[in-house]
Amino acid sequence: MVKNFEELDFCSTPLGELVLRRRKIPMLENEVVYEIILNGEFLMSSLFHAVEDALADLGLAAAQPGPLDVVVGGLGLGYTAVAALKHQSVRSLFLVDFLEPVIRWHQTGLAPLGNRISSDPRTRFIEEDFFALASHPETGFDAAEPGRKFHAILLDIDHTPKHWLNERHASFYTLEGLKSLRRHLAPGGVFALWSDDPPDSGFCSTLEGVFTSVHAHTVSFPNPIRGGESSGTVYVAVC
Q1: 8 A C-beta contact, residue 18 and residue 10
Q2: Looking at the structure, do residues 57 and 25 belong to the same domain, yes or no?
Q3: Whether the Cβ atoms of residue 29 and residue 41 lie closer than 8 Å to each other
Q4: What is the pLDDT confidence band of residue 34, given thresholds at 50, 70 and 90?
Q5: What's the CA gap between 160 and 4, in Å, rounded?
Q6: What is the pTM of this model?
Q7: Considering only CA atoms, which of 92, 56, 89, 58 is closest in space to residue 74?
């Protein structure tokens, strides 16, 4: 039986104190919700994942037809990964996360979608700094095949292009940082980015300096806690 509140894991990481917890929400008929919290700040809730799903669906919809090799930066509770795996065109899925506990939660089934992700032979977990790998296209995301190109890179780590989990990430969202990222993509490849803010015209202009086609999609979803709707943004940029 699920308790009203459980702290499933607590650990110190290079980014601060990380918590995975599970709780029931009485106002939603005791719906069970999983949450990831870093340094007291919410990173992810299983109650809200429409934008994470859309990150995979919109990004992969913009990709070229055919077998797709995909990178997901930021594993979280796994919703983007599961949404990507629903696409039969996905041939391989590299899941890059800097935090070892997050990967462990999925590999051991502690995270609610972990078994579903881990059991799919297309997936590979990579415990690395996505931004460090992105800045070195000559080596890239696949240690076994340096310089390997991918058809889509889906990123959900920072809150927005201007609100980062770590200040070291800031350079990624510049013209030079995005140019380095593009070198990881095959011709016609797609970069898609999750953001918690409305579309940012300045960031769209930066993307347009690197990519051939850029769209900022507003994704709305019902918010049963606050009432009404909330929304996020998925940026989709195509080489």
Answers
A1: yes
A2: no
A3: no
A4: very high
A5: 32
A6: 0.96
A7: 56
